[in-house]
Specification:
six-stranded parallel sheet
């Protein structure tokens, strides 16, 4: 039985890859750091800002802070209305799951300054029981704290909860909290990377989430 679904945002609900890649590359260029490929940059999407850059490039804590500040400044410039559309099937699927009474939440490595606004922009904010940003936890993904905090706040059980995301960090976070996990193959992580974490499901289209809920809850579409 599933009662609660914890969703990643970037690469799972919102198609922000081009916006994030552009901003990462601009940050690297602005600070005259060693050039990185788009593939390498994509691989760190989903981590907190400072960790994104320290994973990409060895650097001091001071430079990591400077990267994060520069990224935020450039992101605010690049993040024009409509720059992060919902992936196909997201709004329709969440609308149906909300109608069925499931608790829908977001747990993201994105900051609280942009996350609620983006959820509202793609039209899902009214369906969400909780939005957790990186600012709401001491330990970000892949630590299980975002999931454990969500369970505590909503009174949900781990065995009745599904974590959905596009990155290995999402799968690790859910598994460490003993929830079920579902990877989406259309985001920033590759199917091979995601499969290696052994999630309970891998889906290629967000609407397939309904099939999982039907299967687990004995419902029909």
């Amino acid at each position: 039985m599933l009662t609660t679904i914890i969703l990643d945002f970037d690469g799972t609900l919102g198609d922000s890859q081009s916006l994030i890649l552009k901003t990462i590359q601009q940050t690297i260029q602005t600070l005259r750091l060693p050039p990185q490929s788009d593939e390498a940059c994509s691989a760190v999407i989903g981590l907190p800002l400072k960790e994104m850059f320290t994973t990409l490039i060895p650097m001091s804590e001071e430079m990591a802070e400077q990267c994060a500040e520069t990224y935020r400044r450039l992101f605010d410039i690049n993040n024009i209305p409509g720059s992060v559309p919902a992936f196909p099937g997201v709004v329709e699927t969440l609308t149906e799951l909300h109608r069925r009474g499931l608790k829908l939440t977001i747990a993201s490595s994105r900051g609280k300054d942009t996350l609620p606004l983006l959820a509202k922009e793609i039209g899902i904010d009214s369906m969400l029981s909780l939005i957790l940003s990186v600012n709401d936890v001491k330990n970000a993904k892949p630590h299980p704290e975002p999931v454990l905090l969500t369970l505590e706040k909503l009174g949900s059980k781990a065995e009745e909860t599904l974590v959905v995301g596009d990155a290995v960090y999402d799968m690790m976070m859910g598994q460490r909290a003993n929830t079920k996990t579902c990877a989406v193959s259309y985001g920033n992580g590759t199917r091979e990377e995601l499969a290696a974490t052994q999630p309970d499901w891998i889906i290629d289209h967000f609407s397939q989430l309904l099939d999982i809920v039907n299967q687990e809850n004995g419902e029909t579409a």
